[in-house]
Specification:
166 residues; alpha/beta; Rossmann fold; 7 strands; globular
Length: 166
């Protein structure tokens, strides 16, 4: 049986409120997912990785550069891509479900990839975008992610997940 992977996306800079939210989210999703995937750098990514590890989970960081040392200290498995922001597609395609926290254009691009490929994306408080599931609490985000992890992938999502532009 495949491992359940939840992706968490958000900014490389965040305020204390978002940092606490990400840390708490990480701790809670460690109870329902086997692996956390993120961009592996600072800010939201570091806080969620720290929380996930505190909850006993395994973290995967798909970083934009070539140097594994660029990943935050809470990443167990570092995948250095050398792809810059193009690595965002790998982050979301690795996940079964994605939870979005505040960020900027990089986070927005990851949300767009989720929508494009039919990967369920949950916004925790901040993003109000058609097709994105919006929740207001960590508990609601975890509950929704858990529900989505239990659902089989529908045929149309399987088609979307193999989308080739053109």
């Amino acid at each position: 049986m495949r491992k359940k992977i939840i992706g968490v996306i958000g900014g490389h800079k965040c305020n204390n409120e978002v940092e606490q939210l990400a840390h708490n989210l990480g701790k809670k999703i460690a109870k329902v997912a086997d692996i956390l995937v993120s961009g592996g750098l600072s800010g939201t990514m570091m806080a969620v990785c720290q929380g996930f590890k505190a909850g006993g989970g395994l973290t995967l960081g798909i970083i934009p550069g070539y140097n594994k040392c660029d990943a935050n200290q809470f990443v167990d498995i570092v995948i250095p891509t050398g792809l810059g922001l193009a690595r965002n597609i790998l982050v979301v395609k690795s996940a079964d479900v994605v939870i979005a926290l505040p960020g900027e254009s990089g986070t927005l691009s990851e949300i767009a990839y989720c929508l494009q490929f039919g990967i369920p994306v949950i916004s925790l408080k901040y993003w109000d975008i058609p097709g994105v599931i919006k929740v207001n609490t960590v508990k609601a985000a975890v509950s929704k992610a858990c529900d989505l992890l239990k659902k089989p992938v529908s045929p149309e999502l399987k088609t979307k997940s193999r989308y080739v532009p053109g």
